Amino acid sequence: MRFVLSSIGMVLILALTFAAFGLDVGKSLALVAQGAFDPAYGWPTTLTRATPLCLTALGVAVAWRAGTYNIGGEGQYLVGALAAAACAAGLGGASPALWAPVLLLGGVAGGAAWASLATWAWLKRGVQLVVSTILLNFIAVELVAFTVRGPLQEPTHARPMTAALPNSAMLLQLVRGTSLHTGVFVALVAVVAVWVFVAYTRQGLVLRIVGANPRLARTERLPVSKSQFLAMAISGGLCGLAGAVEFSGVTGRLSDGFSQNWGFLAIPVALLGGLEPLWVGVSALYFGALFAGTENLTRYTPIGNTVVPVVQATAVLAFLGLGKLMQRIRRPVEEPA
Amino acid sequence: MVHQHFMLVPEFTARENIALATMGNTRGVLHPDELSRTAQTWAKKLGWELPLDTKAGRMPVGVQQRIEILKVLALDSQVLILDEPTAVLSPAEIADLFRVLRQLAGEGRTVILIAHKLSEVLSVADRVVVLRQGRKVAEAAAADVDAAQLETWMVGGRDPLQLAESHGGGEVVLEATAVTVLGDRGSVAVDGIGLECHAGEVFGIGGVDGNGQLELAEALAGVRPVSEGQVRRPDKTGFVPQDRRGDGLALDLSVQENLAVGMMDDHGLRFGPFMVPARLRASAQNLVSEFSIKVADVRDRVGGLSGGNQQKVVVSRVLNQNPELLVVMNPTRGLDVRATDFVHSVIKHAAANGAAVVLFTTDLDELDLLSDRKTYMSGGTFTQTMGGATV
């Protein structure tokens, strides 16, 4: 219900935005809808965009549920991709069947390690996670910039990027003519796994308690720091996995422009999903559709790339705002604690 | 009114804090200097050096308290109420505070001092009133009474305490030797206490809040580390914290989740790393009916329950684990009569079933009602008397 009403509201606000830019509202909306939902290329593009968003947003959700405010998804995503690229460089002539699992696991390890740096600084030295994770994002950007010009640069040393993954090592393409790849199943499995973990395991319960009230966890002598460390590692691992999936599913190379801000966008996606893994999946689909749609818009109108982020941001804000509004309508009396 | 817990904005300077109290209608323009002028005059009169441009949060507590008093004086208050003002002060600061209070009284203002240290009361007051459980039980000129008399009024004609040896002969379950515990600010809160608690007995510890009970309770329960000495406790130690909303519950989680905190290691409810949802719910529902917790659905937020039902959630979670040692702190604070009776009977029942119970309470009736042996706590040590005064 909330999604339906919010969607209607969002379409209205999208229409207003197009009008503000002097575009034909009807035609623009149709282009967006086509880009997001056309069976031949709309849906596949939506799913492709939703895949990294879903994984990073799950990462954010796990961390935030445990009260560890990881906003370093972007850095963990980049380091995950970097780790995957490093694994690829190391694999050389190994059997093609080995590539995908090694690359993805490498991504998980890279992202988890990057997140753990921040957790370690927090637990041992009291450095706020919000500060350290965001700063580690910048370091990750520079780290990628350095590696694609140094150790991992393609053999001709002409351009700042890694060598392309061999086709046999890429995740399988699912729909001809689109970038949709088997990584979407990785995201799907992750949604279910994270859901089961958070809702139905002992460790998941501990995480939720630590996040909801660390003082209760202390009273019950639960391992607070250990749980927070674990939550951050899982969070970073999921973001790193997203990077590895994007690397081995879509780009095949690592370069300066590798990041599409998936790690940052993870935060609104996760919040929109109410930090509930299943809803985070739905929310990622929604954002994926938005990206696929606006990309299509730029292709067929003179609107230009600069307007796209504006449209996207407006839509995101509108959606979040409307979601909040729906919540308030449903729960009119919320007593302050 | 000068509150026990200071009402200062830590990030504001002293000047700004005073201005905040005195600003009234500013018409949008604020002149902290002007607004704090009266306060500065007062400071001079009382002989206080004031670091006006220091942030309140960076000042020693004694100085913060002066700011609080100046805030009140800047408003030209004729009646000053001070709630436990000496709790945080050093002896020298206390002497200075009392000098100022006498000076203010001498100028014709009324000073009401709420305190529990009898020697302090007697050294500064003209008239003394004793309150017990919301009623005035005695009133006298300070010159006419001594600490022993006040003590009697405060505890209401109870027998003088004796640390009886009648613990029923159960085995020693809890043993603390020369335990020193630090408070949150790193100062010594519990100063070398030793105690034993036996299976089947309730060991009661009374006393006025803030004399190290919280720190000792947490140390006995294994929640707070001891800085010196040793605590020997069984693995199955249950702790009912004083602040149920802050320490005992996750208010945003459901009743079931709050109960599940104590069931995570029940073999029947776990399958490897997984919790079995149906069994978890059934166990939660059992506890809810056993302890008659009033909640429509165990999936409801625990924060929406009444205080009594919230406390039942905490108590039932702890007792469900069949603790050999139970540490309970002010278990009935803020509860109505029925909920209080219920919690009392549950505690007695636990002791009757062989648990060693350490009860911390500021409620003397509760202490008398439940304890097999009892003592008081004052200034981080056990004493025989309630106020900690040397009689």
How would you describe the overall organization of this protein?
The complex is a heterodimer of chains A (337) and B (391). Chain A is mostly helical. Chain A has a domain at 52-285. In chain A, 73% of the residues lie in helices and 0% in strands. Chain A contains 13 helices and no strands. Chain A has helices at 2-20, 25-37, 42-65, 73-91, 96-125, 129-147, 183-200, 202-212, 214-219, 224-251, 262-272, 277-300, 307-330. With 391 residues, chain B is an alpha/beta fold. Chain B folds into 2 domains: 14-114, P-loop containing nucleotide triphosphate hydrolases (Rossmann fold, 3-Layer(aba) Sandwich), CATH 3.40.50; 172-383, 3-Layer(aba) Sandwich (Rossmann fold). Chain B has helices at residues 14-22, 32-35, 37-46, 61-74, 91-106, 118-124, 147-155, 213-221, 244-248, 255-260, 277-290, 307-319, 337-352, 364-370, and strands at 79-83, 110-114, 127-132, 135-141, 172-182, 188-198, 202-206, 228-232, 237-240, 270-271, 274-275, 325-329, 356-360, 373-378, 381-383. Chain B has a 6-stranded mixed beta sheet with strand order 9-12-13-7-14-15, with helices on both faces. A 3-stranded antiparallel beta sheet of chain B has the order 6-5-8. Chain B starts with 13 loop residues before the first helix and ends in an 8-residue tail after the last strand.
Based on the model shown, name its key terms.
heterodimer, A: 13 helices, B: 391 residues, alpha/beta, Rossmann fold, 6-stranded mixed β-sheet, 14 helices, 36% helix, 21% strand, globular, disordered C terminus
